Amino acid sequence: MTAYDRAAEGLRARFRREEAALHAEGYLTIADAVELLDVHRDTVIRMIGDSRLQAVRYEHRWVTRREWIDAVPRSRKAAAEWRREHGYLSVAEAAAELGITRQALQVRITRGTQTAVRAGADTPTPGAWLIRAEDVQRRVA
Fold first, then answer.
1. Could you tell me the superkingdom of the organism this chain comes from (predicted)?
2. What global pTM score does this model have?
3. All domains in the chain, ordered by first residue
4. Are 34 and 41 in contact, with CB atoms under 8 Å apart?
């Protein structure tokens, strides 16, 4: 066993002890969240960044709790259901109704010719543009 191997094993043992202490206090690591949500690590980091997943700093790590993970919407289907319940369309849905591309609708939103609002932090997709269904004039076929 080389000095490198001993150092690496010592570091792994330290990480195992730290993780056991986190779990004892009811926290879950990002790796645990990845397993429970069945998504990529980058997705969990993005969810924390845009407030879809609550997390706190514990020493040098981001950690979360089981109940916070359970509160996360599980799929895009949940976001679509939320929009329907509240009378909103996504940019893609509104663009399809209008018969234009998403990019063209984004330009209309930016210029102010299409009414849209940003989704709040309590929505399944915070920061996304939402368009009221009644604000979309249907395409004449």
1. Bacteria
2. 0.54
3. 3-71 (1.10.1660), 76-135 (1.10.1660)
4. yes
